[in-house]
Design goal:
Length: about 130
């Protein structure tokens, strides 16, 4: 998992040829510590098709504010230069992988079902949800 800063954030997300999963968290956050091994496993298993990045919100609060996030842990999934999914809280690895797979395959986490899912919280209008 790549640690990103305000200076290189866009390079790994908006400007990257690979989609990116960005984990916003804090070293002091107990829930973030529980989620970290799951995100590391996803990073290892998807290194060929996904940038997985870490933003320490204690050090880089402007990045947290830039996306109007309202709590940690929070994941943003970028694809083709846009935020395609926002996932707040802790979810099982299988749920996260399913969302990532759908976004990378179709561009949208809800496209397969045609309706909003529990964690499809920020529809960009890319599907019929």
């Amino acid at each position: 998992m790549t640690k990103v800063t305000e200076e290189n954030f866009d390079e790994f997300t908006f400007d990257s040829s690979l989609p990116a999963l960005v984990f916003f968290g804090s070293k002091r956050c107990k829930i973030c510590k529980e989620l970290a091994p799951v995100i590391l496993a996803i990073a290892d298993e998807n290194a060929h098709r996904l940038n997985v990045c870490w933003v320490d919100v204690d050090k880089y609060k402007p990045l947290f504010q830039r996306f109007r996030l309202q709590g940690i842990p929070h994941l943003l999934l970028f694809n083709k230069g846009e935020v395609r999914e926002r996932i707040g809280g802790v979810h099982p690895k299988e749920v996260l992988v399913a969302v990532i797979d759908r976004v990378l395959d179709t561009g949208c986490a809800a496209a397969e079902t045609g309706k909003k899912e529990v964690i499809h919280s920020d529809c960009t209008g890319c599907c019929s949800c």
